[in-house]
Amino acid sequence: MTVFSFDLDTPDPVRLGLIILQADETIERDFRRLLPMETAVHVSRVPSGLEVTQETLLAMQAHLPAAAGLFPDALRFDAVGYACTSGASVIGSARVAELVRAGANVEAITDPVQALIAACRAGGITRLALLSPYVEDVSDMLRQRLAGGGVDTPVFGSFNVAEESKVARIAPASVIDAATRLGADPSVEAVFLSCTNLRTLDLLEEVEVRIGKPVFSSNQVLAWHLCKLAGAPMAPGFGQLMAQA
């Protein structure tokens, strides 16, 4: 055997982590478009229930440290995102951060709820129309968390789905119709399309044009906030306000 000497390169300049649900079929594809190709994103998954209830969402707490612990040990991450809007609303962003830090070496931690509140503050938005795929009690927890962050959701609509597997199958035309109808209400300043598994990325611009207001999605604001926290660029072209904030 011939043994060769070698040199070591430095790690990637920006290191992001993403903890996604076992059932999520959408966010990885979205993040490939939302982030520049040169941005390193390491992905781990956390077990999630077949149905989305407060109980199944809370159950993820027990698995978050282990999911975070599957990231490469040699890396210190600039930012890690827990990619579950409803999970973050039920568990709470502070508790999510505590659990992720138990498993990963990370500078900053965010989630879609925290990211949405940050995006609304950046844009001076305090009143949202909220479209959720989930049943009412799960969505109510999200609305309470947003209100605690200074963002009211006086206009609310839902597809009232309990099974997670159905969320990624909701037709884009159905999302566009519902979001447009909610966003047309003059009492709101923007629309939020909740859930990382809902296919929304290609719909944002069309709904914004229809209603003349900013439209946010879980994956969009999460990618934006991760980039903000890490000091990294975000790929252009995904929403009016994201380009300005």
CATH architecture of the largest domain: 3-Layer(aba) Sandwich
Helix content: 40-55%
CATH class of the largest domain: Alpha Beta
End-to-end separation = 56 Å
Rg calculated over all Cα atoms: 18 Å
Q: Which structural class do you get from the secondary structure elements?
A: alpha/beta
Count of beta strands: 8
The share of residues in extended strands comes to 15-25%
Major sheet, described briefly?
4 strands, parallel
Number of domains: 2
| Count of DSSP-assigned helices | 12
| Major sheet strand order | 2-1-3-4
* Integer average pLDDT: 93
**Which series of helices and strands comes N to C?**
EHEHHEHHEHEHEHHEHEHH
Query: What overall geometry do the principal axes of the alpha carbons give?
Result: globular
The stretches of 5 or more residues where confidence is low (pLDDT under 50) are none
How would you sum up this structure, described in words?
The chain is of the alpha/beta class. It has two domains: 15-111 and 221-244, Rossmann fold, CATH 3.40.50; 114-217, Rossmann fold (3-Layer(aba) Sandwich), CATH 3.40.50. 42% of the residues lie in helices and 21% in strands. Strands 2-1-3-4 form a four-stranded parallel beta sheet, sandwiched between helices. Strand 5 (127-134), helix 7 and strand 6 (152-161) form a beta-alpha-beta unit. The mean pLDDT is 93.
